[in-house]
Amino acid sequence: MTAMPRFPDGFHWGVATSAFQIEGALDADGRGRSVWDTFTATPGKIRDGHTAATACDHYRRFGEDIDLMRRLGIDVYRFSIAWPRVFPDGHGKVNTAGLDFYDRLVDALLAANLTPMPTLFHWDLPQSLEDAGGWLNRDTAAHFADYASTVAQRLGDRVNDWITLNEPFEHMALGYALGQHAPGHMMLLESLPVAHHQLLGHGLATARLRAAGAKRVLLTNSYTPVEPATASEADAAAAAAYDALHRGLFTDPVVLGRYPDLSAFGADELPFVHDDDLDVIATPLDGLGVNYYAPTKLAAAVDGPLPFTMTEYPDADKTAFDWPVVPDGMRRILVELTERYGDALPPLWVTENGCSFPDGPGDDGAVHDDRRISYLDSHIRAVHDAIEQGADVRGYLTWTLCDNFEWAEGYHQRFGLVHVDHDTQKRTPKDSFAWFAGMLAEQRA
């Protein structure tokens, strides 16, 4: 494997995690119930009935995990704050004990020379807000802004970089449209208000974060380069429709102040958009987070409620999640965003990129995960290629530090640089951990 090309001076490197997937301690210190607590308690929703009751026990073991990050050599830690740990009912009375945990976490990160980059919403909506309609209810956007302000007032003297939402497309699509994630609704296109209210909450929260002294505010979206399955006009139209729903719906309003053409979905009008909403949503950003895992190939749907159907990449290697491994998709999406939005686009951050493979300790006690090393090496090189082609990328954060609770898959998918025995909580750095640490040391030599 040849040496990694040198990234620009000041480029940031880190790892990303989320609260529900790693913290555990779901009943500690007054934390309220989230939609994911309810979903995981529903029979048949999570593979083999796994729960996040302990997860990686990060709530109690964060010192051990910070030591791993220090050994890895990163400079940024992206984590999420659990909304129900701060507001057990989603709004109203603040749970001071919950804020105390994040206070301790931030102090420990700074003591280890790690920059904290908290995400305020990574899908764990307080159940009480879901009972009132969740993101279908416009009031949730205002409650989110209040929550953001409360957290920033407590941590803002030490935290400069904030992310409002993580992957609002996935939360809408998997949680409200298809029922595969919490809260488990199957509303298909009737879930579109969820997109708008999340973005409205982002815009309102951005203003509140800045008022509390935030230096940089980002939004993180998932992105996937799309391509038609064939050269037919029908497949090209299907790919364009999917791109409008996945990229356009969650980027155009934020960067350009307008929604894309959604007529392919029969959404010629969006009655849930109120006057001045788009001005709020388009509050200027300091960065746009890009989560990339795989490209998407679309064909025209023969029938059904959506105008497209997903097809396979038969020649590509696959991860344990059966996602195609296409490193050039990383370069493509970073360059496509740069070319599509031009001067309106804020600086880009790769806020998630990683792969799941079922590697475990061998007879020698080590975890030899060559496929993960190959994946990371090729995708990081693709980021460098995008920078050389004009993309303003400021950092790369891999998903993830430790094998965690992977939503509906439970503990069956392992994305971590560190293997976790979920019975004993023993952490074993994988070969990819050593590779990543070595790559960073070479970058800084």
TrEMBL record:
<protein>
    <recommendedName>
        <fullName>Beta-glucosidase</fullName>
        <ecNumber>3.2.1.21</ecNumber>
    </recommendedName>
</protein>
<comment type="similarity">
    <text>Belongs to the glycosyl hydrolase 1 family.</text>
</comment>
<dbReference type="InterPro" id="IPR033132">
    <property type="entry name" value="GH_1_N_CS"/>
</dbReference>
<feature type="binding site">
    <location>
        <begin position="406"/>
        <end position="407"/>
    </location>
    <ligand>
        <name>substrate</name>
    </ligand>
</feature>
<dbReference type="GO" id="GO:0008422">
    <property type="term" value="F:beta-glucosidase activity"/>
</dbReference>
<dbReference type="InterPro" id="IPR017853">
    <property type="entry name" value="GH"/>
</dbReference>
<keyword id="KW-0326">Glycosidase</keyword>
<keyword id="KW-0378">Hydrolase</keyword>
<dbReference type="GO" id="GO:0005829">
    <property type="term" value="C:cytosol"/>
</dbReference>
<dbReference type="Pfam" id="PF00232">
    <property type="entry name" value="Glyco_hydro_1"/>
</dbReference>
<feature type="binding site">
    <location>
        <position position="166"/>
    </location>
    <ligand>
        <name>substrate</name>
    </ligand>
</feature>
<feature type="binding site">
    <location>
        <position position="122"/>
    </location>
    <ligand>
        <name>substrate</name>
    </ligand>
</feature>
<feature type="active site" description="Nucleophile">
    <location>
        <position position="352"/>
    </location>
</feature>
<keyword id="KW-0624">Polysaccharide degradation</keyword>
<feature type="active site" description="Proton donor">
    <location>
        <position position="167"/>
    </location>
</feature>
<keyword id="KW-0119">Carbohydrate metabolism</keyword>
<dbReference type="GO" id="GO:0030245">
    <property type="term" value="P:cellulose catabolic process"/>
</dbReference>
<dbReference type="InterPro" id="IPR017736">
    <property type="entry name" value="Glyco_hydro_1_beta-glucosidase"/>
</dbReference>
<feature type="binding site">
    <location>
        <position position="293"/>
    </location>
    <ligand>
        <name>substrate</name>
    </ligand>
</feature>
<keyword id="KW-0136">Cellulose degradation</keyword>
<dbReference type="InterPro" id="IPR001360">
    <property type="entry name" value="Glyco_hydro_1"/>
</dbReference>
<feature type="binding site">
    <location>
        <position position="21"/>
    </location>
    <ligand>
        <name>substrate</name>
    </ligand>
</feature>
<feature type="binding site">
    <location>
        <position position="399"/>
    </location>
    <ligand>
        <name>substrate</name>
    </ligand>
</feature>
